[in-house]
Structure formats: C-alpha cells, structure tokens
Amino acid sequence: MLPLCDFTSHRKKKGMYWQKDLETMTASQLEAYQLQKLKETISRAGQSPYYGALFKKKGLSATSLNAVENIGLFPMTTKEDLRGNFPYGFLAMPLDNTIRLHCSSGTTGNPTVIFHNRHDLDSWANLVARSLFAAGARPTDVFQNICGYGLFTGGLGFQYGAECLGALTIPAGAGNSKRQIQLMQNFGTTVVHAIPSYLTRLHTFFEEMGIDIARDTSLRLLVIGAEPHTEAQRQRIQELFGIKAFNSFGLSEMNGPGVAFECEHQTGLHLWEDAFLAEIVNPDSLEPVAEGEVGELVMTTLDRQAMPLIRYRTRDLTRFLPGDCPCGRTHRRIDRITGRTDDMFIVKGCNIFPMQVEKILMNFPEIGHDYLIVLETINGVDEMLIKVEVSRNWFAGELDALENLRRRIVDEVRDEVLLTPQVKLVEPGALPKQEGKAVRVQDLRKSEGA
Ligand code: ADP
Ligand code: ZN
C-alpha cells in the first residue's frame, strides 16, 4: 500500500484541493463513508482492554450500527477515563506494532497519552498537509514551525504535515526570538506556525531589531492555534504582521493539529469529517444541542488504528456554522473555540470564561498583548483582579497617568461579565511569559483553601 504521504505525486498538485474526492463528498457519500469507517473503528476499539470490557458489559459491537447516528448508543469517553486507564488501557493492538506516543500538554491536570502506529502517523501527517493546503500553503513554501517539539503534538505534528505537503520545513522549536527572525531571513520563510500568544511577543523583536516584515522578510501566511484566542486577538496579529493568520484546531487525543482548520475564506474551521465523527452536546445533559447552538465538542476517531477513541468529550465549546463555504469543501465548519467547559470560573456567583475578558481587553488599542486574571479571596470575599499590560506604543513611563483608561476597562469588563473586577495596569512586558501555551488565569483561592 502506498503511504498517504506520497509527496512526489502531491508535489505536482495544481488543483484547489489536497484530496478533492474526500474533501468535496456529498452529504450522503460522506455519511456512507463515515459509517463504514465507524464500524471498522468500533471493531478495532473492541480489541482494547477498556472498550473490550465496556462493549461486552453493554452488549455493543459494530453490528449495533446501521447508521452514523447510532453512535449515540455508545457511552462517551472522558479525560478521566483516559487517566484512569493510563497508560495502556486504550491500546487496541500489541505494543510492538506502535511506533510513537504523544501526550497532551496537561493544561487541566495529568497529561493523557496517545499511541500511534505507522498508519496513524501517515494519516495524521496527511490531515495536517490537507489543512495547510486549504489555508493556502503550497509545496513551494518554506514553513517555519515555531513551537515545542517533543511530547507536545504541535511540533512533530506540523513537522511531518508540512513535509508531507512538500514544503521545506524548518523545525525551529520554541523561543529564542532573535534566532527565529534570523532563520526567517536566512531561508526566506514564507509560512510560520506558532501559538498566538507567542506571535504577539515575537513581533516586539521585529520592532527592536528594526526589521520591517513586508520589506525584509518573505512571510506571507501565519498559522495560529493550540490555545484559545479571540477574533480580536487574531485581527491584532494580522495587523501586526500585515498578513493573514489561519486558525488551526486540534487536540492530542485526536492526534493533535489537523482536526479542524480554516480555509482561505476564513469562514470558520472545516472539521475533517472523513477522519473524525463530530457531535456537539449540551455539557450538562449530554444531549445533542439544537442546530447551530454552542455546546461541547465530542469526537470519534475514524482513521486511527492503535488507539481509537469513541465519543471523546473534548471539553471544548463551539458550534457548527450554517451554510456552505465558497471553497467547495463540504466538511462542516465549526466556530472558533470560545472556551473549555473546565476553564470557566465562578466569582460571586458569576460564570466567567477568560475569552469574555480577552474580547473586551483586545478592543483597547492602549492595551498590550498580555493579561492575567488573578482570582483571590480577600477578607473572605472572592475577587477578580485583572493585570493588564499597557501597549508599548502608548506607554509614556507613568502608569498613574492612565487612571482614566483603567476605569474604562473596569466598566467594560463589568458590563460583559456582570461583576466589577479590580484592574491593575502594568508596564509593557511585566507579566510572566510562558514558553508554551499562555496561562491566562491564576486561581489563588484553591491554594488558600477557600
Ligand atoms: P491540553 O488539553 O492539555 O491543553 P493539548 O496539547 O492536546 O493538551 O491541547 C488541546 C487543547 O488546546 C484543545 O482541547 C483546546 O482546548 C486547545 N486548542 C487547540 N487549538 C485551539 C484553537 N485553535 N483555538 C482554541 N483552543 C485550541
Ligand atoms: Zn472553506
């Protein structure tokens, strides 16, 4: 069998799609395709200790499936299930047939582990190549991957995906901003992948080094993802760099990047439905939400052999977008992730998502790119303190002179989240920076035992 990433033939691709047949299937073709892949997946999953025992107990098997909707007969899988059966409980084939493992970043607790065989890695690389192609990257591009390599899936995931596309791929890794810019200049980088919070920081180095992106580099396209960000933050990044930034969504439990991606029209993220079966459910009742409503994304792998996952609760909140995309791809589009069910926090009875706060902050041109929400208990009362970096372009050396700005932020955040925050302006660059995903909330209430 030819590997999926046969890039000698892909290199010659001149059409609009990476895999036209798969990307433009009609709804009924897609459904038939999904049903067949789903049956295979259920049979394979039944070989793992966890699903084997579960299916037996519930009397479920691939023969329970007459239509894709029958997936609802199967129980959902949670992050706790993965953690509780760590490390091999979900492995559906002998360990010697697997060739790599990856772990989640551990943003919300102990990391989870996913195993891959050769087929899985080829299939994943192909999905990332398809995603990059959809966003406008081509084999002639020079792709610089600015993120951590290692267990984090953004490193090797984009590396092999961009190689599969046929692009010259620079495994630049995270950090060392001046060197990143040097690499871009030395090798004529045209496409960069990085997490959004890092790109805004990287931009300050261009300024410091006196490098004009349009004049002194060949950059033409950015790929951003791996962490929640608002449309306002994307707009900022696009304005700073003067080029488009495409949203890339993925999670290690579904391989990593290459799950859903924006095409050149930026009308939401096409979720690759030949490789993943997606449902959106109410996180409390676990019932499907009404068409177009926001809920938790639940996903089943359709093309993974070593470790298939059935109805995995991603905890990510999104909705299916209505209508067709002008690009002609028929796979449904999801909206940008508005948060995770588990990053919502409650202060004085108000339910708040960090992205609600970010949305307000990013609309102030006087505000820099970083902020930190600190939750603490003061005299027995929960308080929300937002530390906000002032933009370098606005800062004249005196924070006290910005009292008017501070008050406007308090008012606007209060109107959005219905709670009066404390706001503290800090100097540009004063907040702690992470090498990986940005930490936006620090909850000191837990450590105080409150
Ligand atoms: P962890 O779940 O520990 O952060 P992963 O590295 O697997 O580990 O990260 C996947 C998660 O990152 C997703 O479930 C989602 O919450 C977030 N994420 C990934 N891409 C995006 C994106 N484009 N927009 C918003 N959130 C994203
Ligand atoms: Zn499209």
Describe the structure.
The chain has helices at 7-10, 20-23, 27-45, 49-58, 79-84, 118-135, 153-165, 177-187, 196-208, 213-216, 231-241, 354-361, 403-417, 444-447, and strands spanning 100-103, 113-116, 142-145, 168-170, 191-194, 221-225, 244-251, 256-262, 269-271, 276-281, 295-301, 312-318, 333-334, 339-340, 345-347, 350-352, 367-378, 381-390, 422-426, 441-443. It is α/β, with parallel strands linked by helices and 450 residues long. α6 packs across α7 (153-165). The termini are far apart. The structure holds adenosine-5'-diphosphate and zinc ion. Residues 104-108, 152-153, 225-228, 247-252, 314, 316, 337, 340 line the site of adenosine-5'-diphosphate.
Question: Any key phrases for this structure?
Answer:
450 residues; alpha/beta; four-stranded antiparallel beta sheet; globular; binds adenosine-5'-diphosphate; binds zinc ion
Short structural description:
The protein is an alpha/beta fold and 450 residues long. Helices cover 31% and strands 23% of the residues.
